[in-house]
Amino acid sequence: MVSKLSATPRPLHPPLAHAPIGAILIATVLDVISAIDGGAHPWARDLFHTGTYVLMTGMGVMFLAIIAGVIDRRRFTAASSRPRQGANVHAALMTALAVVCVLEITLRRNVYADAHATPAVVTGVSVLALALVTVGGELGGRLVYGAGVGVRGDATAPAPRSR
Question: Quick one: which of 10, 17, 26, 2 has its CA closest to 140?
Answer without folding.
Answer: 17
